[in-house]
């Protein structure tokens, strides 16, 4: 049983109300004789705005609210292959505690999640299926956090594979889809519905072929992977005032051999919008990435000192065009990244990116150059500290010369730590960092099937739900660039090393191509 009481203090003085939150939860209960029931939980939460926290009634920007939510949740397991979780909630909300009780709003919400793993049959591998259904009443409210009101949502996911005859390669396949709608009780002027379908296929073309030739060529064929993806997203209003349909195709080929890695892709998308001011659009992009690790070289000044550099080259071209009105653009992106190992604790990172945008309009072409040079000293394990010195230059040139700008930044980052881990952890640091880099490299390839192969068989969470979340991310991300991976902490009592990684990603839903920087944490148990 859990009991809690909270008084959040993030209110804006004299503008927003202070709020009290309290609740109780009974969890992990079981019923004798009901073997399928794994867990049962009951919860009650109440939130109440403190009216007197704003003395001046004219300064109140909103009404004081009181909300109560009662919920029940349960999880069931049927044999070894099927699982179901269910949740039901009832809310009672007073939207204005200073007015009549006749204004009290009552609503309900419920959600079902199910998963099933079918055994291999008829040439198909074992197939995983997941589904969920959620319905939230228009009058349901949860001021302490909960589902969005007035919505019905359904999701479905399938993952399987097929054994092919003869020398044909085996095929992996998956499907994910969802649909949603609002205006469940016709309280709005129109209803909006959305439907999404995604199909993915993957194969290793030379999986069953006899390898011949030198070792490099054999590895190129052995590790070659081809993936294809097809998707559709349709959104429309019941009165036919708005409608949009997005259809996309994605083809990718990747391989690796020794110190070499290579991948190439082609994407095509057509967007049809009934009310868009720019009209229907077509977007096509293609590109490649090549990597070469451990390039050994020496300098004339220090011939006795060997250096090792990892090199990455990438190029992308994107054409975007409006179909029924004037307007189109042509973008080209070129990048070079190097990471040179000076010694065991020091490295030099250099990144250069050139972006060219031709909008086919007068005074609209843009040329952007970015480069970054960073000298990194990492001595966390050995000397409990790290130090980074970096220089970044960003330059943009436009046809309208008054809009040109250049920015240069010198930056120094230092972090010192005491009481570091035991010496035996030193040997594990490189192993853990390499493992994270390999996982992130696969993630950047946008190959969901290859990425899921990296997930440990001992993964304790919902593997299918995790895969569906990863697929949803792949569908939105347009480009990923990793800035670094490093050991950041060690927990002696638990024998765990903590790895921090940072990346940049550009969501394709942003028309501006805005970039987002995020940081992730990976924990490795040293065994």
Major sheet characteristics: 20 strands, antiparallel
Order of helices and strands: EEEEEEEEEEHEEEEEEEEHEEHHHEEE
Spatial gap, N to C terminus = 35 Å
Helical proportion, percent range: under 10%
Overall average pLDDT: 76
Assess the beta-strand content as a share of residues: over 45%
Written description of the protein model:
With 527 residues, this protein is mostly beta strands. The protein has a domain at 421-527: Nuclear Transport Factor 2, Chain: A, CATH 3.10.450.50. Helix content is 9%, strand content 57%. It has a 20-stranded antiparallel beta sheet, sandwiched between helices. A hairpin with a 3-residue loop joins β4 (66-78) and β5. The longest helix has 19 residues, at 426-444. It is globular. The two termini are 35 Å apart.
Indicate the topology.
Layout: E1 2-6, E2 18-29, E3 37-50, E4 66-78, E5 82-94, E6 105-118, E7 127-136, E8 151-162, E9 171-181, E10 192-203, H1 215-222, E11 225-237, E12 243-257, E13 260-273, E14 281-297, E15 307-322, E16 328-343, E17 346-358, E18 366-379, H2 380-383, E19 385-398, E20 405-416, H3 426-444, H4 448-452, H5 463-476, E21 477-491, E22 496-507, E23 515-525
Antiparallel strand pairs: 1-2, 2-3, 3-4, 4-5, 5-6, 6-7, 7-8, 8-9, 9-10, 10-11, 11-12, 12-13, 13-14, 14-15, 15-16, 16-17, 17-18, 18-19, 19-20, 21-22, 22-23
How do you describe this structure in short?
This protein is mainly beta. The protein is 9% helix and 57% strand.
Task: Looking at this protein, list some descriptive labels.
20-stranded antiparallel sheet, Nuclear Transport Factor 2, Chain: A, single chain, three-stranded antiparallel sheet, 5 helices, mainly beta, 527 residues
């Amino acid at each position: 049983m859990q009991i809690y009481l909270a008084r959040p203090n993030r209110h804006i003085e004299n503008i927003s109300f202070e709020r009290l939150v309290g609740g109780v939860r009974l969890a992990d209960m079981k019923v004798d004789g009901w073997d399928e029931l794994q867990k049962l939980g009951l919860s009650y939460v109440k939130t109440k705005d403190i009216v007197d926290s704003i003395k001046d009634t004219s300064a109140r920007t909103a009404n004081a609210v009181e909300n109560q939510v009662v919920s029940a949740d349960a999880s069931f397991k049927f044999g070894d292959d099927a699982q179901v979780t269910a949740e039901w909630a009832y809310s009672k909300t007073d939207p204005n505690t200073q007015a009549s009780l006749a204004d009290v709003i009552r609503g309900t919400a419920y959600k079902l999640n199910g998963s099933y793993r079918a055994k291999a049959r008829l040439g198909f591998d074992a197939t995983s299926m997941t589904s969920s259904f959620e319905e939230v009443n228009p009058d349901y409210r949860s001021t302490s956090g909960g589902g969005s009101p007035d919505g019905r949502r359904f999701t479905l996911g399938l993952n399987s594979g097929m054994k092919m005859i003869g020398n044909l390669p085996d095929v992996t396949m998956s499907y994910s889809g969802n649909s949603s709608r609002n205006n469940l009780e016709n309280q709005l002027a129109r209803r909006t519905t959305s439907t999404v379908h995604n199909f993915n296929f993957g194969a290793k073309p030379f999986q069953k072929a006899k390898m011949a030739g030198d070792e490099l060529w054999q590895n190129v064929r052995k590790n070659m992977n081809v993936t294809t993806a097809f998707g559709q997203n349709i959104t429309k209003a019941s009165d036919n005032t708005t409608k949009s349909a997005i259809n996309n195709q994605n083809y990718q080929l990747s391989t690796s051999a020794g110190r070499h890695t290579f991948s190439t892709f082609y994407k095509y998308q057509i967007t049809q919008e009934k009310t868009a001011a720019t009209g229907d659009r077509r977007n096509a992009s293609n590109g490649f990435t090549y990597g070469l690790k451990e390039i050994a070289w020496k300098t004339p000044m220090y011939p006795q000192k060997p250096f090792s550099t990892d090199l990455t080259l990438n190029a992308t071209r994107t054409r975007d065009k409006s179909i029924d009105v004037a307007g189109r653009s042509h973008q080209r992106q070129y990048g070079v990244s190097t990471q040179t190992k000076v010694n065991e604790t020091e490295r030099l990172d250099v990144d250069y990116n050139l972006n060219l945008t031709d909008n086919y309009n007068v005074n609209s072409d843009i040329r952007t150059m970015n480069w970054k040079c960073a000298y990194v000293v990492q001595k966390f394990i050995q000397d409990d500290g790290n130090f980074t010195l970096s220089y970044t230059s960003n330059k943009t040139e436009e046809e309208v010369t008054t809009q040109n700008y250049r920015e240069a930044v010198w930056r120094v980052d230092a972090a010192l730590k005491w009481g570091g881990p035991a010496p035996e952890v030193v040997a594990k640091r490189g192993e853990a960092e390499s493992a994270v880099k390999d996982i992130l490299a696969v993630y950047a390839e946008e190959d969901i099937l290859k990425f899921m192969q990296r997930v440990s068989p001992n993964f304790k969470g919902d593997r299918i739900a995790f895969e569906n979340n990863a697929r949803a991310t792949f569908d939105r991300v347009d480009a990923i660039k990793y800035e670094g991976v490093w050991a950041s902490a060690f927990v002696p009592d638990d024998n765990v090393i903590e790895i921090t990684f940072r990346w940049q990603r550009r969501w394709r839903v942003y028309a501006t191509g805005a970039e987002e920087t995020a940081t992730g944490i990976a924990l490795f148990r040293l065994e």
